[in-house]
Amino acid sequence: MKTIARILLLTTALLCSWQCMAVTNTWTQKANFGGGAREGASSFSIGAKGYVCSGLTTNALNDLWEYDPVTNSWTQKANLPGLARVYGTGFTIGSYGYVGLGYNTFMLQDFWQYDPSANMWAAKATFPELRAFSAGFNIGNKGYVSCGLSNSPPLGFRTDLWEYDPGTDTWIAKTPYPGNSGGTQAVGFGIGSKGYVYNNVLGEFYSYDQSSDTWTQAASIPSYASGGCAIGSVAYVNSAGIGFWQYTPLTDTWIQRASYAGSGVISGPGFGFVINSKYYSGGGLSGPSQTEDFWEYDPTDCLGVIGGNDLPGSACNDLDPCTVSDTWSTLCVCTGTYTDTDSDGFCDANDCDPNDPNVGGPFPWYQDTDGDGWGDQFGLIQCIGPSGWVTNNFDDCPNTPGLIGDPCDDGNPCTL
Question: Dihedral (C-alpha) 184, 190, 195, 201: value to the nearest 10 degrees?
């Protein structure tokens, strides 16, 4: 049995060899952002590329940079035609990126579409009012902007929600965000048919149902949020040096994951986007200083599940009955501790008495159908046999007492 168990373990190791080099729930540093240290940039991703637009160094900017994870490199693209800006809003719809709003020396309300195939920008319908610090996200083929600060009358925070339809190039007012106050640097993301907005002023978190145009309060983020993105059926929020959190809508719960390793974590806000189920984040503020370092987060667990809980250090099953306390290693190899308490060569799981070195592992038992003390050909392997079974299988006449060659009585008085 021990041999069989080790064969199973070897088979499992071969089948899961792709995991053995995996490094999950970790941050990996990538090439510094190509546009230099900055804060308040807008970002989005299209296909296998990520984009960062505008932001603030000593002055507001209108540049656009493309990140390629395959080559780990940044390439400057066509500048945003509008005014330079900081704390604008960006999101993706289909194969286009959208950037707008924000402020320069005053707040803005222009809105632009970027086509990566042509490396060109196109002006789109102006947002209904001047706005900055708002949350942007998409649900399917629609874009959404909520919360933020406006200096359109009346000046102040906003709780409204606007839906952008790229097919008609129009903005449509939807049911407002139900929180008590709008917030600056609000965080938004979409998962499936719902959008989610977090208000950093009061710590309120709500989900928006596109089909019913209604909001539902959800479990609040455990700390301040400086940015967030959805990956599959979960979302990740960076909490500016306080933590990095995973949200699961199905259970409405937050789980802390590996803290962001970048330098722009003390006061944020940096930029972030998702490429091929990995989260990328960079820039922002570290105290008074703007940063340019850039990092990749792998959200898969040791089984390849996005947001899964089979992480290094957690319990697993290596399929070897001879081991206990099986745990995922840092390289996602499931290993346990081999146990043979009485050191008799049989692991505890296969030992008929793990505390007695004179008692080994299970052995064969055979049914004795005819009750002659000789076992039938096929049996069971276990420590204690069923009543009437024996430990040999020599009976070649299983339905008649005795063996071939033994004396017998054929009932014929004429034979010897």
Answer: -20
